[in-house]
Specification:
mainly alpha; 11 helices; 273 residues; globular
Length: 273
């Protein structure tokens, strides 16, 4: 018998559907490793759809939708899912996107003006601190705005209201997401103009993936799970339990102990012509 280091002919023990979920840190890198090339593909698609500028919001919603699929480990055809979500959430997200673009342009203009001043006017420090706090709050609200658009059926007013509350309810996770996003943005700015080519390929989708992984559990905890609990149901996003497997199983695996099914003898009936 020849020695084989790996036997690919024999079936393995498999992975149980009810196996305990890995710790977030290991699960993050496992999903990231499996979806790495799809994340790059998504970044390219996202940049392409953002070119008209007014489509920034719908493109961001579509990107968030696909990332949510990745995080929940659901089947996903990247471009089809992206384009479907782009059309589905266009009406609600286009307004948010236009406001975002206006705010970003205003922020860059304000920064340019302050940097061009030789001396800051009296009281400017207090004004700058207030603006930084407000900008940070709005930035962190965006961790949830687009996730709510793609995951929930709510009015724009309710989405913004929930986003404010979720910023304060998930302080620890939001702080981690903020540090990750600011680090990437800082690196991109520091290495301009060379980093422009990198932006086209990777960091935008990576930021979305990381933010979704960190912040979507907050939406599940405070919005989605309570909704199902009130109805006496279980959130289907939380995975499969042993009860689900037993209830939905069509066949039970007996490990090869099943009896062989023998074909019945052919019946000899009349042939109708």
């Amino acid at each position: 018998m020849a020695f084989k280091l790996f036997d690919y002919q024999s079936s393995g023990k498999g992975v149980s559907k009810t196996a305990p979920q890995k710790k977030p840190f290991f699960r993050y890198w496992e999903i990231f490793g499996r979806k790495f090339w799809k994340i790059i593909e998504l970044n390219l698609i996202y940049v392409l759809f953002c070119i008209p500028v007014v489509t920034f919001g719908p493109a961001t919603a579509a990107l968030t939708h696909v990332m949510r699929k990745f995080i929940l480990e659901q089947p996903c055809f990247v471009f089809d899912e992206f384009f479907t979500a782009f059309k589905k959430n266009f009406k609600q997200s286009v307004f948010i996107g236009i406001v975002d673009v206006i705010m970003l342009v205003s922020l860059f203009i304000a920064l340019f003006q302050y940097m061009s001043l030789d001396k800051l006017p009296d009281g400017a420090i207090v004004y700058i601190c207030i603006m930084i706090c407000c900008a940070t709050l709005v930035f962190m609200m965006h961790f949830y705005i687009y996730l709510e658009i793609v995951a929930l059926k709510l009015s724009l007013k309710a989405i913004l209201k929930n986003a404010i509350f979720l910023v304060f309810l998930g302080v620890k996770r939001n702080f981690i997401a903020l540090i990750v996003n600011l680090t990437i943005i800082t690196l991109v700015v520091l290495f301009l103009p060379y980093s422009v080519f990198v932006v086209i390929v990777f960091p935008l989708a990576f930021m979305s993936f990381t933010t979704t992984f960190i912040c979507y559990p907050i939406i599940q905890k405070y919005i989605i799970n309570p909704y199902y609990e009130e109805r006496g149901e279980r959130n289907p996003e939380l995975g499969i339990t042993e009860d689900d497997v037993a209830e939905n199983a069509l066949f039970v695996d007996r490990g090869g102990s099943e009896k062989e099914i023998k074909a019945s003898p052919k019946a000899h009936g009349k042939v109708i012509k």
